[in-house]
Structures are given as structure tokens and as C-alpha cells.
Design brief:
It is found in: Cell membrane. Helices cover 78% and strands 0% of the residues. It has one domain: Up-down Bundle (Growth Hormone, Chain: A), CATH 1.20.1250. The protein has 20 helices and no strands. It is globular. The protein is mainly α.
């Protein structure tokens, strides 16, 4: 049952409403998907430390298993983003978590690399489905003065999940076949999130787009106050809003929205290619930087996760003051500088290596939080989840290629060559952002999405 928000005689809209307990609960529960994504990707990096020698896996299987969840995210975002626009946010908000729980448990019983590859692919599909669902709900419920911070906060939870996985994995490494328990462990937070999400209602924006104004108004009065109105929510022809998959993708990929898809896909891909490779193969990469495999490498891996989280928090504090564009552009430039140092001095003293990693991780926070802010601000309600799912999927294909190629690159190009490639990717992200990034600071959701 919904928690009754404080009543108010004054008229209130979604964009002008004060932040209340419902907004906080919605954001916390919606952050479960990013938390699980970070956890699932990071835990495999540590699990592979045991899996590779146990199964005597080569670089090909190493890369395939590391990248499998990312390929799944592509499929999930592409298919279920559009489905979310058609059948609503709330139903899909729970189905995807059930799938994550089931597939996480089944990982415990795998006996061969191909079985683990398939299960992690299916987990990725469920995670990819959650991205457009959860972010659309938050974007469509929260006041505009808090939208950037709360949407960006969802991405910060990705790093909380990854950090938690690093320490859980480090603890379980001391257990024989601990990798099985690592992969199973993602089911525990998924169950808790599933239970918590039962109290979240359907999006008023989506309901209005389907001609269900009375239902939308009732939900708003329960969540932001008795004085709530539907002002600021654009009413559409319900029949026109029920776009087929073909028409929805046609709208997203046509006209002015195509430029936005290209921009978001490029900057999002450039943000996560290096990031995901580090998470999938962190202990192995750190060992090449003279952090010996074992306790030292795994502790260093956990600390890098904390630096990523700090960077997200700092970016959240400044994004509404500085604006989206400068946070994005300078984030790429400065994080890329850290990668350049690692490329030039791969044999530098341990303290300098740690500082360069910290520099990269902290300034990566700007582009990271905007992965969630820009896609939800730049597309209208009727295709918001479709667009977010599409951009998520495109970015994950790039990340999957990068993750698959990382062990091969380390073997054939070496550590320095791999870091140079990572720095070049950051430069591409900076250039695309400079020429294409719009400024949506201070705009209402409908205004930001308008062409």
C-alpha cells in the first residue's frame, strides 16, 4: 500500500513538488537494478580468479564469460525498453527481478564454460530490461530540481554494488569453490529489492499518455499531496501513444531524436568500455601493474571501486550547479589524463599507479552519472523507455566488445598498449560531448524532451 504523503491545500505539480519520503523510497528501490548490475559484473572479475585455473580456460572463454552479461543487457534494453512503453513501468519493474533471482541461483550448479556463458547472458537480459524501467519511473515522478541528482544517484548505486561485490568476492576467495557462492550471492539482494518494489505505483506520465488521467491524479495525490494537479504532463491521444515497436523505434531514430541517440550512445559507450573492462578483469590488470595476484590485487580492486563511488558522489553535488555539459566534457578529459599516465608509466612506483587509477576513477564520475540523466531528459514519455533501452543496448555492445577484447589486448599489445587504447576512447567521448551535448539544466521534463 502507498504511503500517504503530507497533504497541501496549495496546488502542486510533479516538477514543483518538494522532495518527500516517497521520492526517496522510489529512488532507493529503483537503484536496485544498477546495484545488481554493478554487483554482477564485478563479482565475475573475482570469480574468474578461481574459475580460470579450475576449468583451464583460455583467453577466448575468459573474454566471452566476462562480456556475456553485457551482450544480454543489449538484448534486454532493446526488447524490453519498448515493451515497457507499451504495457507500463510497474509490471516490468518486478518481472525482471524474478528472472535475475532464478538465473543467479542456477549459476551455482554450472559445470562447463558454455553453461556459465548462457546464464550470465540471460542475467544480462534481465538487467538490461530494468534500466529503462527504473530510470523512466524516477524521471517521471521526481521534481525537476532533484531530477539530475536522483537519476545520477541511480548510477552511483552501480558502484555501490560493484564495491560490495569486491569485498564479498575477496572474502569468498578463501573458500574452496568460493566462486559458486559468489555468483549465487546476487540472488540475495535481488529478493530484497523485489519485495520492496511491490509498493511502487505506475508512472502518472505513462497513465496520462494512455488517457487514464483520473488514475494518474489519484496516484499523485497519494504520493505528493492532496493539492496535486496534472499540470506539466502533456496529454496525448491514447491511441497514438500505443505505438507499435516499429513506429516507436522509427520515432526515436527519426528527425531530431536520431542526433540525440547518436550522442548518448557514443558518450555512454566511451564511458563504460574501459570501466567495464577494469571491473571484469580488475584483479588480472592490477597484477600486471606489479600488484601481485592474491590479497594485494583484490584489496586494490576494492579500493578502486571506492574511488569510482567517490567520483559519482562529487559529480552529483556539482551537476546542477555547473550544468550537464561541463561535467561531462571535463570528466572525459581528466579521467583520460589518468589513463595516459598509466599508458606512459606502467612500471611507475605503486603510489603513482594508485594515484593515476584514483584520478581516472574519480573524474569518470561525471560521464557516469550522466548516463542516466541525459537519456531520460532528452526523449518524450511515449518513447522514453524505448530510447533508454536502445541507447543502453548500443553502449553495451561496445562495452561487450571491449570486455571480450581486453584479455586478448593484454596478451598481444601489452599493458601500455591497452591503456593507450583506453585513453583514446576517453578522447573520443570528450570530442563527441563537446560537439553534441545539449544543456538541460533547470528545464522541466517535457521542455528538455522537446525538439
Amino acid at each position: 500500500m502507498l504511503q500517504q504523503a503530507p497533504t497541501s491545500a496549495a496546488q502542486t505539480t510533479i516538477d514543483s513538488a518538494p522532495l518527500n519520503s516517497f521520492h526517496k523510497r522510489l529512488t532507493l528501490f529503483s537503484s536496485g537494478g544498477p546495484f545488481l548490475d554493478g554487483y554482477i559484473l564485478a563479482i565475475i572479475g573475482i570469480a574468474l580468479v578461481q574459475i580460470i585455473p579450475n576449468w583451464q580456460m583460455n583467453d577466448w572463454w575468459n573474454g566471452l564469460i566476462g562480456a556475456s552479461a553485457l551482450v544480454g543487457v543489449f538484448i534486454g534494453g532493446l526488447v524490453f525498453g519498448n515493451l515497457t512503453d507499451r504495457i507500463g513501468r510497474k509490471l516490468m519493474y518486478t518481472i525482471d527481478l524474478v528472472a535475475i533471482i532464478v538465473f543467479s541461483v542456477l549459476q551455482f550448479f554450472v559445470q562447463e564454460p558454455w553453461q556459465l556463458f548462457v546464464l550470465r547472458l540471460l542475467i544480462g537480459v534481465a538487467v538490461g530490461a530494468d534500466y529503462p524501467i527504473a530510470t523512466a519511473l524516477v524521471a517521471e515522478f521526481v521534481p525537476k530540481n532533484w531530477r539530475a541528482r536522483l537519476l545520477g544517484g541511480l548510477n552511483a548505486m552501480w558502484f555501490v554494488g560493484a564495491t560490495a561485490a569486491a569485498f564479498v568476492g575477496y572474502w569468498l576467495l578463501s573458500i574452496e569453490d568460493g566462486w559458486r557462492w559468489m555468483l549465487l550471492s546476487s540472488a540475495i539482494p535481488a529478493v530484497l529489492i523485489l519485495v520492496a518494489r511491490a509498493s511502487i505505483p505506475e508512472s502518472p506520465h505513462w497513465l496520462v499518455s494512455r488517457g487514464r488521467q483520473a488514475e494518474a491524479l489519484q496516484i499523485l495525490r497519494k504520493t505528493i499531496g492532496e493539492g496535486a494537479t496534472l499540470a506539466g504532463i502533456t496529454a496525448h491521444d491514447p491511441k497514438a501513444a500505443k505505438l507499435s515497436s516499429r513506429k516507436a523505434f522509427g520515432l526515436v531514430l527519426g528527425g531530431g531524436y536520431l542526433r540525440r541517440v547518436v550522442f548518448i550512445s557514443i558518450f555512454w559507450t566511451c564511458t563504460i568500455v574501459t570501466l567495464f573492462a577494469i571491473y571484469a578483469f580488475g584483479p588480472q590488470i592490477l597484477a600486471l601493474f606489479n600488484l601481485q595476484s592474491g590479497d594485494e590485487a583484490n584489496i586494490g580492486y576494492g579500493l578502486i571501486n571506492l574511488f569510482f563511488l567517490v567520483g559519482n558522489i562529487v559529480a552529483l553535488l556539482v551537476v546542477d550547479k555547473l550544468g550537464r555539459r561541463p561535467v561531462l566534457i571535463w570528466g572525459f578529459v581528466l579521467s583520460g589524463a589518468g589513463l595516459v599516465f598509466l599508458a606512459i608509466y606502467p612500471q611507475a612506483p605503486l603510489g603513482l599507479i594508485a594515484l593515476a587509477f584514483a584520478f581516472y576513477a574519480i573524474f569518470n564520475g561525471g560521464p557516469s552519472i550522466l548516463e542516466w540523466i541525459y537519456p531520460n531528459e532528452l526523449f518524450p514519455t511515449k518513447v522514453r523507455a524505448t530510447a533508454v533501452g536502445l541507447c543502453t543496448g548500443i553502449s553495451r555492445i561496445g562495452a561487450a566488445i571491449g570486455t571480450f577484447a581486453t584479455p586478448l589486448s593484454l596478451t598481444h599489445l601489452g599493458l601500455s598498449g591497452t591503456m593507450w587504447i583506453a585513453a583514446a576512447i576517453a578522447l573520443v567521448g570528450a570530442g563527441a560531448s563537446y560537439f553534441m551535448a545539449p544543456e538541460t539544466k533547470g528545464q522541466d521534463l517535457e521542455q528538455a524532451a522537446a525538439l
